[in-house]
Design brief:
The chain is α/β, with parallel strands linked by helices and 523 residues long. Helix content is 31%, strand content 22%. It has 14 helices and 22 strands. The strands form 5 sheets. An 8-stranded mixed sheet has the order 2-13-15-14-18-22-19-20, with helices on both faces. The protein has an 8-stranded mixed sheet with strand order 4-3-12-6-7-8-11-5, with helices on one face. Strand 16 and strand 17 form a beta hairpin. Helix 3 packs across helix 8 and helix 8 packs across helix 13.
Length: 523
């Protein structure tokens, strides 16, 4: 999941309109009981998660690991009886990249093995290198001038923006009843004079621009490699957005992203005047034979003559970062969505509408898989020119907030779906799923659908240790997946998808977004 998560009030909406509230949404209690029985007592969700993580490995966009996952998920869903299973290209992505070897250690003033992994889309070192370390500290581009002539054949050490601190709270947490109650209420209106995020965005862009200048300078000055860190603690380190992956991207240096404790030790030694030497070897491989990106798609066909051309979609992104096996981000979501359709196939349900599951590619680089799927099938958000399939989508459900159990769903500012979702959640109150919030959430693939006026939704999940320990880190492994949480999520999703496929009407929609002024001018 992209770390752009936010909560905000949507369109000033609160509770459902009275006329809608008077309508009773049908819930098939018998099928819910069967879904629970199959999903809780004969679950395969952890087996699926094992294959996606331990067997397929890291699934960086364009990597061999993602290719393995694409092929395995397509084959597995066909085995379960889904139809129209395929790898669907969505457009050009860029170069693939894989790690074949990685090693880093301090060798002077003494030996110490260090924790780190090559930064995505960086070249290898072409064998082992053992070099002196130079610390570069720069708050602005002008600060780089003093390092000219000092970096050749050196390993560059960059600063640590946020040092680890002693923590006094648990890594993992679940939503409390009070937190869920507050979430269910409309967010308070934003004051007209409230400060915006403009300053934070400006500062972020300035940091990116400075880092780009630093990267360019390091190459020009002939440095051997770079050691950097995005933070973390207790041996956990966060991976970054990587180097450019475009086929024509400019060359960069070999770079290892480090655990901050190791990075800080090196910095303290250098600042104290101690000569520091580091040995490192990275071997990476670029794939340029196929620059396309792919989604995995499969279906349970609809059976109603009038409604089978309509589609209920569910999905999660299959790609991950590379320092671990992408368990909570987002093998968990993919395993749950696959398990949901497996449950429905095991029960031999006959949905009125077609049910289509999609496992997205390149979410981590900008929701590319889902955005291009929406553009290819439904509408281009830049022009809002609707394609025929736009009218046929009944709903899209997404899962990408870690491995915690489902506690409810974000209505994404859609007032009319709130009473519907409230009824659909009632059978799962005993499993902790009760909350419908009118608010928005962002940072993942449902946004692609919402951007063109389609009903796209993300479930509320217990965060567990997602933000503190696993999200984009070297600790995002199978061990972080609670089986009971994934089983619970699977049955909730299966029920939502089933009921969306069986309704007389598609789910209500919000008004279509307005075409951006720049796009209107260009038409």
């Amino acid at each position: 999941m992209q770390k752009l998560l936010y909560l905000a009030v949507a369109y000033g909406l609160g509770t459902a309109a009275p006329a809608l509230a008077q309508q009773t949404e049908k819930v098939d209690q018998a099928i819910v009981a069967k879904i629970k029985d199959e999903g809780l007592n004969r679950s395969q969700v952890m087996k699926t998660a094992f294959y996606l993580t331990d067997v397929c490995g890291p699934r960086l966009s364009g990597s061999e690991g993602l290719k393995r996952a694409n092929e395995w998920t397509q084959k597995q869903m066909a085995i379960w009886g889904l139809t129209n299973t395929k790898l669907e290209p969505w457009g050009d992505f860029g170069r693939g990249w894989d790690i074949e070897k990685s090693y880093v250690a301090m060798t002077a003033p003494y030996y110490h093995a260090m924790i780190g992994a090559p930064k995505a889309w960086t070249p290898g070192t072409n064998g082992a290198v053992k070099k002196q370390v130079v610390l570069v500290k720069a708050a602005a581009e002008a600060d780089l001038d003093k390092y000219k002539g000092q970096l050749r054949d050196k390993i560059v050490l960059t600063e640590v923006a946020q040092e680890p601190k002693t923590t006094f709270t648990a890594d993992a947490s679940r939503y409390t009843d009070e937190e869920l109650r507050k979430m269910a209420a409309p967010a308070e209106p934003r004051p007209a004079n409230a400060s915006s995020n403009d300053a934070a965005r400006t500062a972020y862009r300035a940091r990116l621009a400075l880092r780009a200048k630093m990267t360019e300078m390091f190459v020009q000055e002939g440095a051997a490699a770079v050691l950097s860190t995005r933070g973390g603690s207790h041996g956990t380190f966060f991976t970054s957005n990587g180097a450019p992956y475009a086929a024509d991207a400019k060359p960069v240096l070999p770079e290892i992203e480090m655990a901050p404790e190791d990075q800080l030790r090196l910095i303290r030694l250098v600042e104290a005047g101690v000569a520091v030497e580091v040995e490192m070897e990275t071997k990476t491989r670029f794939q340029t034979q196929d620059l396309k990106g792919y989604n995995v798609v499969a279906e349970i066909p609809g059976t109603d003559k009038k409604l089978k051309s309509e589609v209920v979609m569910l999905g999660a992104h299959l790609d991950s970062w590379h320092a671990a096996t992408g368990a909570t981000d987002n093998a968990a979501g993919c395993a749950v969505m696959m398990e949901a359709v497996r449950i429905l196939k095991a029960l031999d349900v006959k949905p009125r509408r077609t049910i289509r599951v999609a496992l997205w590619g390149a979410e981590e680089q900008g929701l590319h898989g889902s955005r291009n799927y929406v553009k290819n099938h439904f509408a281009d958000p830049a022009t809002m020119k609707l394609l025929p399939e736009h009218e046929k989508l009944a709903a899209y459900f997404n899962l990408d907030n870690g491995a915690g159990k489902i506690r409810g769903i974000y209505a994404q500012g859609n007032e009319q779906v709130q009473p519907i979702f409230s009824e659909w959640l009632k059978p799962f109150a005993d499993l902790g799923a009760t909350t419908v919030t009118p608010r928005n959430t962002g940072g993942t693939d449902h946004l692609a659908f919402d951007a063109v006026g389609l009903p796209g939704f993300q479930f509320i999940q217990d965060e567990l240790d997602y933000d503190t320990r696993t999200h984009h880190t070297n600790m995002d492994t199978y061990e972080r997946l609670p089986a009971d949480d994934l089983k619970q999520a699977s049955v909730v999703v299966a029920s939502f998808v089933y009921h969306a496929a069986m309704r007389d009407q598609k789910l209500p929609r919000k008004p279509l977004p307005q075409v951006p002024a720049k796009s209107q001018a260009g038409q």
